[in-house]
Design a protein that fits this description.
Order of helices and strands: HEHEHEHHEEEHEHEH
Strand order of the largest sheet: 2-1-3-4-8-7
Structural class: alpha/beta
CATH topology: Rossmann fold
Low-confidence stretches: none
Number of helices: 8
CATH class: Alpha Beta
Largest sheet: 6 strands, parallel
CATH superfamily: Thiamin diphosphate (ThDP)-binding fold, Pyr/PP domains
Radius of gyration: 16 Å
Helix content: 25-40%
Strand content: 15-25%
Shape: globular
Mean pLDDT: 88
Number of strands: 8
């Protein structure tokens, strides 16, 4: 449960992205994940998605297949991923060894008022199990064998190593605290973000 989570998302993402170089391509999910990667340091090889809920994993997969010599890291949220669970099955079918997916799960719809998301424990009646959706289990069921949950600070060093260097596809569900944080926004022009990412990756045409 997010209420028992001890990990702060901003310091965590800074640790994950520390020392990022031209070999690391980062896709940021809608909303809070975008603010997190930007707070860690805006860079041309970050691609924060504006208004594209559910798209990060699919974009990360396409990028990983197109750029096999690069490491591709998707940083997104639980509600964002719930919009496109089928993308996990497609990742499993393709098995890109350079793709890592980090889902920051606070069990909330953070951009619309912190309502409970589908990963939050349910208490809807006597027939309800009380359990929320387990995205790590769903990922494993889709065929992503290297799928696990991170909850404690003691696990962060291994998390960073796995996301940055372990042969993929890697899926990590990270339980983070519910926090009210300042917006740290990347540029809001989608065409500009696309162009700067493309130029940083491929050079001038």
């Amino acid at each position: 449960m997010s209420s028992s989570a001890t990990l702060h998302r901003r310091p965590l993402v800074k640790e994950i992205l520390k020392g990022a170089d031209d070999n690391l391509l980062v896709i940021g999910g809608l909303g809070s994940s975008n603010w997190d990667i930007t707070d860690a340091g805006d860079r041309p090889l970050n691609m924060p998605l504006w208004g594209a809920m559910g798209a990060p994993v699919g974009m990360g997969l396409g990028l990983a297949l197109a750029q096999p010599a690069k490491r591709v890291l998707v940083v997104t949220g639980d509600a964002d991923l719930m919009m496109s669970l089928g993308s996990l099955a497609t990742v499993a079918a393709q098995q890109p060894d350079n793709l890592a997916i980090c889902v920051l799960d606070n069990e909330k719809f953070g951009e619309t008022g912190n309502q409970a998301s589908h990963t939050s424990p349910r208490n809807n009646g006597p027939t309800d199990s009380g359990a929320g959706a387990d995205l790590a289990m769903i990922a494993k069921g889709c065929g992503l064998a290297d799928s696990s949950v991170v909850r404690e600070q003691a696990e962060v060093a291994q998390l960073v190593k796995d996301l940055r260097t372990k042969k993929g596809p890697v899926f990590r569900l990270v339980k983070v605290m519910v926090e009210k944080l300042d917006f740290v926004m990347p540029p809001q022009d989608g065409a500009h973000l696309k162009d700067r990412f493309r130029q940083a990756l491929l050079g001038s045409a």
